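Trying the structure run again after the queue cleared.
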Amino acid sequence: MNIKTFLISVSFVLALAAASANAQSSVEAVMSQKQIQAARELVETERDMTLIINLDLTPEESETFWPLYDEYRQKIRSIRGRKVTLIEAYAERYRAGNVDDEFAEMAIKDALDIQLDTVKIRQKYWKKFRRIVPARKAARFYQLENKMDTEIDFVLSGGIPLVES
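Done. Tokens:
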């Protein structure tokens, strides 16, 4: 990993950590919608910068890659939005002390559906990205996406308490 990539990764994680600092140990301190939107915009900007630095696209590749990437991110953001909604519903129930078996069953089913839908989108777009860039570049792109999503999920998970048994 070169120094630019490292610095962007560190700033990416720090941006995520700052955005969720109020929810480190519990969901009692929920961010405002403005804070959530600002954090999302910052993460998207960091994501784009990471890709620009690490993909080394040719001008021809860039011309077709970025519109497809925007389409892909829109679909992924929609799925991630469902995840945020699920987390918010859990937070509300958790604070109220009302995480019953029925909700737990529904929440896990929804979480698994979200994971499955994400994989389906990634599979579909893999073929599209492969038509634009060589396999190694497309693989690098997917590795970067996976790393960034994992960092986001790690930060989010730090603010989600376990279901009381």
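Residues 19-29 have pLDDT under 50 and may be disordered. Worth checking whether this holds up in the mutant runs.
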